[in-house]
């Protein structure tokens, strides 16, 4: 009995299944920056890079970088890639698809005898989600030359600093500034990613071309009241931090629902002392806000935070607000949008143009070079969830589109 020959799409899904096995126990995929699971998945990616004709190296920021001979020789280089890390109990395609797919495309071109007339660099960034340290885009900011050394002091739930974790992982915090690329040596940055939304599925399209990435900001709010016995403290006059925080969260939801092109979430909440018969003394929660329009986001943010301060004062609570992350919306380069659109048409795939409601490493890489992004349809538009899924046929289509894009890139005016 002969072994069936797998399509590019089927092989790609098998590779993504293999990468997903490197996860903390539990539903979905949980793989954090500088973790044992991160270390293990890099061995898998190194093998993919080797098959694609790239030489792999871990850089000082924890990014695995694969380069072809032209890139290593200093020729003008196209950077592709995405991130390996996940949210807690996330899916197997968010981020990792953008690492595995370009390597599959490069391997297929190599096997077809196609030699690209420019340098290629594929990156597996260590941290984009910000799950472990609440600090994100570490690797991409390093390449763009915008890395903030102060972020090395960020600490995880076990009080391990980002700098300490990087050193233990094999990175070199002090060497990160030296990773900045020369803009004149870079052709652009292209990322492939699942859409994380329903548009392509509604249009019955396998792929789409991204025109811009959303602006994002994140805050940490700490509401402080006063603990007390839940049975003996009268209701009037209580300084219940959780009740105050609940009112604030409801206000967040109200403003978001009342404002066009504005979305957000309170995704994490911690209560202290978190006891069944004690009035909550303090609540810490996160607030993330997104909009393609910077003015919409800022106006909505100001309204939300002003309301939170009023609600805190009305209940005699203290409120501390800290901005932990902010990135403005950025446009994809017209020439890359056009080139990806042409590649879609050449592969007889509809070239839907759409906006990304998520951020991605392009928010940092745009400070270095032109950026472009190809979306791949995902089932039910679902992402950041164990049921995240794409089909083998869509994986095949996206790989073929990227192959065509790479083959034609040398002819583009960009």
UniProtKB/TrEMBL annotation:
PANTHER family: ALLANTOATE DEIMINASE-RELATED. Binds 2 Zn(2+) ions per subunit. Homodimer. Pfam families: Peptidase_M20. CDD domains: M20_bAS. Keywords: Hydrolase, Manganese, Metal-binding, Zinc. Transmembrane segments: none annotated. Its cofactor is Zn(2+); Mn(2+). Allantoate binds at residues 218, 277, 290. The keyword Metal-binding applies. The keyword Metal-binding applies. Zn(2+) 2 binds at residues 94, 129, 384. GO terms for molecular function: hydrolase activity, acting on carbon-nitrogen (but not peptide) bonds, in linear amidines; metal ion binding. Belongs to the peptidase M20 family. This is Allantoate deiminase. Zn(2+) 1 binds at residues 83, 94, 193. It comes from the Bacteria.
């Amino acid at each position: 009995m002969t072994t069936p020959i797998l399509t590019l799409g089927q092989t790609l899904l098998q590779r993504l299944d293999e990468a997903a096995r490197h996860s903390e126990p539990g539903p979905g995929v949980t793989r954090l920056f500088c973790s044992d699971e991160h270390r293990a998945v890099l061995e898998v990616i190194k093998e993919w890079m080797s098959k694609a004709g790239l030489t792999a190296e871990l850089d000082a920021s924890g990014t695995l970088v694969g380069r072809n001979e032209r890139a290593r020789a200093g020729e003008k280089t196209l950077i592709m890639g995405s991130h390996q890390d996940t949210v807690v109990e996330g899916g197997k395609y968010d981020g990792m698809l953008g690492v595995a797919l370009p390597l599959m495309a490069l391997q297929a071109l190599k096997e077809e005898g196609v030699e690209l007339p420019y340098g290629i660099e594929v990156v597996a960034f260590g941290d984009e989600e910000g799950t472990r340290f609440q600090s994100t885009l570490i690797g991409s900011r390093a390449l763009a030359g915008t890395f903030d050394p102060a972020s090395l002091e960020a600490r995880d739930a076990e009080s391990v600093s980002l700098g300490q974790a990087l050193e233990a992982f094999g990175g070199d915090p002090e060497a990160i500034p030296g990773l900045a690329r020369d803009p004149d040596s870079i052709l652009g940055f292209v990322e492939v990613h699942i859409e994380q939304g329903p548009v392509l599925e509604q249009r019955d399209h396998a792929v789409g071309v991204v025109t811009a990435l959303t602006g994002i900001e994140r805050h940490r709010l700490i509401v402080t009241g006063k603990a007390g016995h839940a049975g003996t403290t009268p209701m009037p006059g209580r300084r219940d931090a959780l009740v105050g925080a609940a009112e604030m969260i409801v206000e967040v939801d109200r403003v978001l629902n009342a404002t066009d092109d504005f979305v957000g979430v309170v995704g994490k909440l911690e209560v202290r002392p978190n006891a069944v018969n004690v009035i909550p003394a303090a609540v810490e929660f996160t607030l993330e806000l997104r909009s393609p329009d910077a003015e919409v986001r800022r106006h909505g943010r100001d309204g939300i935070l002003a309301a939170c301060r009023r609600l805190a004062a009305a209940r005699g609570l203290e409120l501390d607000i800290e901005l932990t992350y902010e990135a403005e919306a950025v446009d994809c380069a017209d020439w890359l949008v056009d080139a990806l659109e042409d590649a879609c048409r050449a592969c007889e795939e509809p070239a839907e143009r759409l906006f990304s409601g998520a951020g991605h490493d392009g928010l940092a890489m745009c400070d270095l070079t032109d950026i472009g992004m190809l979306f791949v349809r995902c089932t039910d538009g679902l992402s950041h969830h164990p049921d995240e899924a794409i089909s083998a046929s869509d994986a095949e289509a996206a790989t073929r589109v990227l192959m065509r894009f790479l083959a034609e890139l040398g002819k583009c005016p960009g």
